[in-house]
């Protein structure tokens, strides 16, 4: 199989590398949904992908990745939540189709999920959608044009993709009047 | 664009926040309170754990109507989690000593949960506690797909990937072993009712109807699964449970459509009905539908019973008279029923709109609104004339309807869509419904001033259930005027719900003669065909009479249709899926298991079931199978036919694993102990096959019969209990064992797909594509190229397999494999998939 990010500790390791953090965090998983847990020296540790990811971002002193204004922060929070509830809860092609459709509408007038700034939401959404995008045919990629544009952009953002497979988007129009 | 998610908070900047958690966080941020790791953690927990559980609990209670405590069971653990954290930290709030965003969000949800709990305590809450708002909330929930909790996944669409199996308790294992040891004695005696079947005091008496198919349509697969096949499967199940069961159905024959068809074909309406009734009966016979009686509505009993109900309604003041403006053709001397008029659509100006509906824009039309109306028979211009009609006074009957519905919903199993459709009908307000029509082909109205009219089909047709039963037995009233003893199940597709849940019950309640009213209304959603709808006029889809020409046996059709029964949501018939399910589920799973179990008895033990010495592993298997059997019963009792089929398949999966792990074909060659083990495994397996034959009977009657013949299962074992017992004891002789299923080949399926029209091969979204005008053949997405390459890949694949089978030289095989890989790569490119998916790496990572 081509390389894909599995949700949980694996993508947190990708994130650590992207943030330039030293290795050494210990992760476990918990429960049926395999929720990631970060073991910390003090206290009971942190549970949940978003929670740990936000913690890592702050640790790396890259707080801008969580948004700058109250509004941006709320929007980032919202898309992170969408990632763990909708994308991770996605089972089957019908669910995937709905997610792609929703994102396609949202991204119609935006460069990134939170508007004009690159945030943690883009990174985790990219990891979460990677396996979905890998399986799309050209026609489907064209159907969700805005998602495709955004995804292609994020996978070329320095340091994000790492060892994951590059999803190919063909940019020239191959046939006229697709719709 | 408007957000696809609402309700939402729209900020001045135009940003839309649709997540309640994000909205709360925004408010706290705006006040200058930054989130901490701890508040984040609570919010994430709320979104991923608490919310889905709360939604599931609400759904279970409001939509499925589960009792309070059962519904909120899943929440208990989660609330305990909050409790525990609060007490462990010893703080007043979730994330410390001041109120934080986490508290407000979780507080909101808890509010709605405690509402649910209190509701559970008070049964009458529905009518006391904001009934309007609750109803709206309920109908909102009904429109949502049912929430899926990790712990509830068992009954979802694709159970193939089995999660962690439930653990068995010692008690369960002991009980299973006891039941097994009791053998046939553990089973009740199969009960054969007298003919005609009549209710029996002290027994469970089940009356089953499936919606009467309209006579002059040939039913398609969607009609078949929606009504007759679903009802048949359930009726067969009931009989195997020793419930006293009567299943009736028939063709609905009166009405405009038959009259029009008769004119078209130059026959009398009765001749048309005779012709098509035979077609229906033949199709259902081919599908092995086990009606106790399949009748029709054009019988003298229909007239007597319908007129009697009418007279009783009239006498009790439930009928109104009113004048209706209608088109009359003066040349033909008749009022024109909707379908006898054509004209220009008042909405879209389509010139050939029908009197009831425009085929172009699909809008419903009142015939008098048509522009330039024409009589369909003589092309004359009709005139608008007032005419008298009779109406059923539904508003007056509503006060009887509501308490009855409440009662029926509380005690019966109505599918969620049936409840929802009924509720929205009543919410929109009931209006008087016209029950007469200016037609000749129908039940005459026995009232002066209306003698040239007939009853309208929706008043008349459901009475067919009664008259058809009357044609079966003159003691029909023991079924239909006996709600104390009889439980009535109505099967239908969802478009038929209002007639069975509102209008017909109103007629019967108004007629007030102790009628048996529906207890369980089972409505399916729609079955689509390869990304489109079944359509006779466009020749799309498979129709009942064509199914037998496909060469695929009726039981395979039954299996596949029941496997994708649109239970809870629409589903889609697809040829390639049919092939897949036949080859994977029937051939490789079920058929393979039953065949191997039987073959081992024949080959290794001379056709005699060997002695069995159960090990702890075997005992666990018995308990596991018993658990599946219980699940099967639980689902079928709720008429979840599709889900129950999964239990059968999972038993045979357990069986295959059991054989695979124990390898009786190896042990039979071993020492005494090994041979004994082979005997035990074979004996247990063949007994599982024997029980599967019974469980399968409602779904695949012929296959079930074939297994019964091959294994010589005694007729007394053809009964369903809650025990998995040893029905083929040591010493039992089996007959000749042969394969039950045949493989469906790709070419055969492709040919059928072409023959019956429908979707193209590429892309599961079925996107329409325009072929490229100026681009060469290498353009991705070219369907022709994809087709060609697919064929070449298949051809080359066969070639390689043949070489390997003939033990060709390695170099030659490698060269051909390389060619195959190259072709696959080209195919992937043509389909626009990332090619590296298919390139093999040295070591595959799973």
From TrEMBL, chain A:
GO terms for biological process: positive regulation of DNA damage response, signal transduction by p53 class mediator; translation. PROSITE patterns: GST_CTER (PS50405). Residues 55-174 form the GST C-terminal domain. InterPro entries: AIMP3/p18_C, Arc1-like_N, EEF1E1, Glutathione-S-Trfase_C-like, Glutathione-S-Trfase_C_sf. Part of a multisubunit complex that groups tRNA ligases for Arg (RARS1), Asp (DARS1), Gln (QARS1), Ile (IARS1), Leu (LARS1), Lys (KARS1), Met (MARS1) the bifunctional ligase for Glu and Pro (EPRS1) and the auxiliary subunits AIMP1/p43, AIMP2/p38 and EEF1E1/p18. Can interact simultaneously with MARS1 and EPRS1. Forms a linear complex that contains MARS1, EEF1E1, EPRS1 and AIMP2 that is at the core of the multisubunit complex. Interacts with ATM and ATR. Positive modulator of ATM response to DNA damage. This is Eukaryotic translation elongation factor 1 epsilon-1. Keywords: Acetylation, Coiled coil, Cytoplasm, Nucleus, Protein biosynthesis. It is found in: Cytoplasm; Nucleus.
From TrEMBL, chain B:
It is found in: Cytoplasm. PROSITE patterns: AA_TRNA_LIGASE_I, WHEP_TRS_1, WHEP_TRS_2. Its EC number is 6.1.1.10. GO terms for molecular function: ATP binding; methionine-tRNA ligase activity; RNA binding. GO terms for cellular component: aminoacyl-tRNA synthetase multienzyme complex; cytosol. Keywords: Aminoacyl-tRNA synthetase, ATP-binding, Cytoplasm, Ligase, Nucleotide-binding, Protein biosynthesis, RNA-binding. It holds the Pfam family Anticodon_3. Residues 785-841 form the WHEP-TRS domain. It comes from Accipiter nisus (Eurasian sparrowhawk). It catalyses: tRNA(Met) + L-methionine + ATP = L-methionyl-tRNA(Met) + AMP + diphosphate. Gene3D superfamilies: 1.20.1050.10, HUPs, Isoleucyl-tRNA Synthetase, Domain 1, Methionyl-tRNA synthetase, Zn-domain, S15/NS1, RNA-binding. One of its GO terms (biological process) is methionyl-tRNA aminoacylation. This is Methionine--tRNA ligase, cytoplasmic. Its main location: cytoplasm. Belongs to the class-I aminoacyl-tRNA synthetase family. CDD domains: Anticodon_Ia_Met, MetRS_core, MetRS_RNA.
């Amino acid at each position: 199989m081509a390389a894909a990010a599995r949700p949980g500790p694996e993508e947190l390791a990708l994130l650590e590398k992207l943030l330039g953090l030293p290795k050494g965090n210990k992760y476990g998983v918990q429960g049926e949904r395999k929720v990631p847990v970060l073991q910390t020296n003090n206290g009971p540790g942190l549970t949940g992908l978003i929670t740990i990811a936000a913690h890592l971002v702050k640790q790396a002193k890259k707080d801008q990745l969580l948004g700058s204004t109250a509004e941006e922060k709320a929007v980032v929070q919202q898309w992170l939540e969408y990632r763990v509830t909708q994308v991770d809860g996605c089972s089957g092609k019908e669910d995937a189709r709905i997610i792609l459709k929703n994102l396609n509408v949202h991204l119609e007038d935006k460069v990134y999920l939170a508007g004009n700034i690159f945030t943690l939401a883009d990174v985790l959404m990219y990891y979460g959608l990677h396996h979905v995008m890998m399986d799309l045919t050209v026609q489907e990629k064209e159907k969700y044009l805005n998602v495709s544009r955004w995804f292609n952009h994020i996978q070329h953002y320095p340091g994000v993709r790492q060892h994951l497979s590059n999803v190919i988007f063909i940019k020239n129009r191959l046939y006229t009047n697709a719709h | 664009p408007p957000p696809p998610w609402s309700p939402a908070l729209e900020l001045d900047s135009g940003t839309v926040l649709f997540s309640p958690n994000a909205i709360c966080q925004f408010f706290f941020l705006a006040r200058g309170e930054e989130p901490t790791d701890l508040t984040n953690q609570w919010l994430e927990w709320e979104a991923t754990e608490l919310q889905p559980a709360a939604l599931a609990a609400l759904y279970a209670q409001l939509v499925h109507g589960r009792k309070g405590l059962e519904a909120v069971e899943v929440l208990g653990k989660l609330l305990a989690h909050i409790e525990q954290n609060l007490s462990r930290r010893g703080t007043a709030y979730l994330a410390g000593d001041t109120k934080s965003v986490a508290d407000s969000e979780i507080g909101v949800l808890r509010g709605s949960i405690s509402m649910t709990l209190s509701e559970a305590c008070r049964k009458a809450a529905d009518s006391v506690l904001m009934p309007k708002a609750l109803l709206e909330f309920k109908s909102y929930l009904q429109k949502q797909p049912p929430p899926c909790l990790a712990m509830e996944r068992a009954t979802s669409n694709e159970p193939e990937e089995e999660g962690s199996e439930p653990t068995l308790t010692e008690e369960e294992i002991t009980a299973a072993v006891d039941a097994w040891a009791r053998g046939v004695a553990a089973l009740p005696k199969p009960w054969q009712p007298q003919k005609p079947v009549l209710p029996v005091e002290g027994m469970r008496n089940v009356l089953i109807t499936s919606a009467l198919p309209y006579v002059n349509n040939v039913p398609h697969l969607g009609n078949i699964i929606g009504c007759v096949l679903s009802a048949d499967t359930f009726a067969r199940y009931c009989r195997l449970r020793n419930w006293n069961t009567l299943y009736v159905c028939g063709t609905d024959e009166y009405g405009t459509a038959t009259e029009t068809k008769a004119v078209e074909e130059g026959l009398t309406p009765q001749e048309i009905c005779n012709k098509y009734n035979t077609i229906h009966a033949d199709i259902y016979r081919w599908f092995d539908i086990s009606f106790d009686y399949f009748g029709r509505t054009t019988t003298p009993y229909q007239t007597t019973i319908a007129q009697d109900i009418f007279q009783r309604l009239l006498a009790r003041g439930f009928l109104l008279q009113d004048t209706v403006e209608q088109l009359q053709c003066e040349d033909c001397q008749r009022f024109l029923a909707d379908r006898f008029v054509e004209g220009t659509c008042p909405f879209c100006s389509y010139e050939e709109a029908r009197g009831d509906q425009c085929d172009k824009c699909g809008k419903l039309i009142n015939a008098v609104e048509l522009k330039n109306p024409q009589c369909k028979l003589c092309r004359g211009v009709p005139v608008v004339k007032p005419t008298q009609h009779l109406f059923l006074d539904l508003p007056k009957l509503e006060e009887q309807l509501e308490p009855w519905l409440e009662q029926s919903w509380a005690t019966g199993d109505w599918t969620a869509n049936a409840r929802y459709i009924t509720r929205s009908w009543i919410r929109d307000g009931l209006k008087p419904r016209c029950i007469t029509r200016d037609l000749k082909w129908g039940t005459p109205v026995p009232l002066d001033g209306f003698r040239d009219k007939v009853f309208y089909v929706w008043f008349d047709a459901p009475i067919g259930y009664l008259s058809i039963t009357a044609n079966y037995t003159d003691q029909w009233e023991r079924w239909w005027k006996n709600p104390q003893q009889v439980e009535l199940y109505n099967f239908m597709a969802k478009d038929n719900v209002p007639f069975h849940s509102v209008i017909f019950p109103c007629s019967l309640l108004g007629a007030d003669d102790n009628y048996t009213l529906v207890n369980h209304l089972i409505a399916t959603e729609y079955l689509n065909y390869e990304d489109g709808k079944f359509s006779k006029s466009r020749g799309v889809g498979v129709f009942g009479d064509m199914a037998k020409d496909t060469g695929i046996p009726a039981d395979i059709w039954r299996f596949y249709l029941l496997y994708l029964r649109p239970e809870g949501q629409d589903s889609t018939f697809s040829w390639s899926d049919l092939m897949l399910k036949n080859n994977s589920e029937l051939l490789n799973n079920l058929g393979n298991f039953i065949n191997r179990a039987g073959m081992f008895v024949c080959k290794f033990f001379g056709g005699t079931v060997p002695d069995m010495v159960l090990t702890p592993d075997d005992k666990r298997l018995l308990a596991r199978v018993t658990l599946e059997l219980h699940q099967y019963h639980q689902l079928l009792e709720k008429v979840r036919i599709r889900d129950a089929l999964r239990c059968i398949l999972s038993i045979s999966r357990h069986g295959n694993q059991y054989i695979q792990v124990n390898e009786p074909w190896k042990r039979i060659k071993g020492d005494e102990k090994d041979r004994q083990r082979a005997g035990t495994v074979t004996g247990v397996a063949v007994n599982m096959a024997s029980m599967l034959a019974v469980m399968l009977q409602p779904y695949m009657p012929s296959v079930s019969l074939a297994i019964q013949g091959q294994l010589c299962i005694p007729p007394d074992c053809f009964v369903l209990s809650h025990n998995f017992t040893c029905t083929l004891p040591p010493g039992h002789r089996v007959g000749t064992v042969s394969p039950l299923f045949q493989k469906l080949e790709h070419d055969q399926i492709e040919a059928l797909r072409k023959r019956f029209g429908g979707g193209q091969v590429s892309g599961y979204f079925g996107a329409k594509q325009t072929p490229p005008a100026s681009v060469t053949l290498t353009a991705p997405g070219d369907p022709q190229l994809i087709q060609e390459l697919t064929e070449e890949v298949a051809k080359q694949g066969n070639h390689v397999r043949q070489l390997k089978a003939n033990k060709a030289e390695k170099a030659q095989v490698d060269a051909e494999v390389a060619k195959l890989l190259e072709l696959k790569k080209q195919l992937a490119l043509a389909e626009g998939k990332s090619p590296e998916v298919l390139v093999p790496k040295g070591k595959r990572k799973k």
